[in-house]
Amino acid sequence: MRELHFKDYFWNGELTSTGGYDCIIQHLNDGKRTCKEIEDFMKARASIEEKYAKELLGLSKKVCGHNEMNTLKRSLDMFKLQTEHVSLSHLQLAQTMRDEAKKLEDFRERQKETRKKVEQQMDALHKQRATQFKKTMETKKTYEQKCRDKEEAEQNMNRNASTSNVKQQEKLLTKTQQAKQNAEEADRLYMHNVSVLGKTREDWQKEYIKACEVFEKQEVERINTLRNMVWTHLNQLSQQCVTSDELHEEVRKSLEQCDIQEDIEHFVNLRRTGDKPPAPVLYENFYSGQRVPAGPPSSRTAPPITRRGPLPNPDNTEGDVIYSTVDPGYSALQY
Description:
This protein is 71% helix and 2% strand. The chain has helices at residues 6-9, 19-60, 70-159, 166-256, 260-271, and strands at residues 282-284, 291-293. Strands 1-2 form a two-stranded antiparallel ribbon. Helix 2 runs antiparallel to helix 3 and helix 3 packs antiparallel against helix 4 (166-256). 12% of the residues are buried.
């Protein structure tokens, strides 16, 4: 199948028309706008990655499992360390994206400068072509008028050839010759301008073909650059996922070494306070001083409680102290 190219399909029937050229320029401007949009997208994505990386880095510095010990502590330390490494990898990714955006910006500026030179040259040729075309059409109009004047003069001379005198015939002949000379001069000028216009057209056509080739080459480079840049961007994102997973795998490996029983034994050996429980609290009888375990009541009969006897009657040996006795039926309550 035949390949299609700019130089073969952007012509116009009118010599002064720039429709095909304008269509190509519009397409290139749209492509330049797309490059700027992709460039801005890369910069925005880099800012997002950088913000995420900085927040993740700050998160990795926070206390996490500070009071843990042994294998779990090592796993949590590894978890924080690899989180920090993930954040650093995202910072690197952000910088890589900015570098790619800068490359696209430089590429866009290079194409802009190249296009500017070609467009300036084509604009000058278009102006020159339009000016020469206008000049040629004016000389054509003059040439046609001079030809009509010549024919009219010849017809007038022929009509008056038999009726006019010699002096009038000479006057008509002079006028006819002058009209013929003017027509010939207009014809030469018209032919010259047509020739110049033809040369201008050839120069414009050659330069237009070259411009189309330059523009098509730029478009090929632009499409290829954008395609490769997006492809590279996706590869970078995929690599970031691989890198993050590798870092996470280090944490998983550490977690595999986390031994629950070992951590339990480590804590026991490090912080144990004793291997014997406290003794039971025994019951101590207030009167007998016999100690009975303070457990559930025993089925055995409680030991007998020794009661004190009645107070002894005091002896009034000295006669100066009198003890009162109360009758058994006496009561302080009055009924």
